[in-house]
Design goal:
With 89 residues, the protein is mainly alpha-helical. It contains three helices and no strands. The chain has a domain of 59 residues. The chain is rod-shaped, with a radius of gyration of 32 Å. The protein starts with a helix and ends in a 16-residue tail after the last helix. The model has no long low-confidence stretch (mean pLDDT 87).
């Protein structure tokens, strides 16, 4: 009888360790969350580096600014003329 009671108590403690608050299951989920956050942090750091590089180019590289103005805003240079072909009817 005492042996069965000890086994029951040990089994209950095992379940508590595995599934209770701050148990093994929680530890697993916390590790997964930590890994996800570390990966997200790494991706954000890479994105920040890319943005910092682009900011520096926009501050210091006039050719880059001119290229952006041409591509994104459709601007032309001072001495340039746009020729459009006439449509044939």
């Amino acid at each position: 009888m005492l042996f069965a009671f000890v086994i029951l108590v040990l089994f209950s403690m095992l379940l508590l360790i595995a599934f209770g608050d701050n148990g093994i299951v929680d530890l697993h989920f916390l590790r997964k969350e930590r890994d996800r956050l570390l990966e997200k942090n790494e991706n954000l750091a890479k994105e920040n580096l890319i943005l910092y590089s682009e900011i520096e180019r926009l501050k210091n590289d006039s050719k880059y600014i001119e290229n952006i103005a041409r591509q994104e805003l459709g601007m032309i240079g001072k001495d340039e003329v746009i020729l459009k072909p006439m449509s044939s009817r």
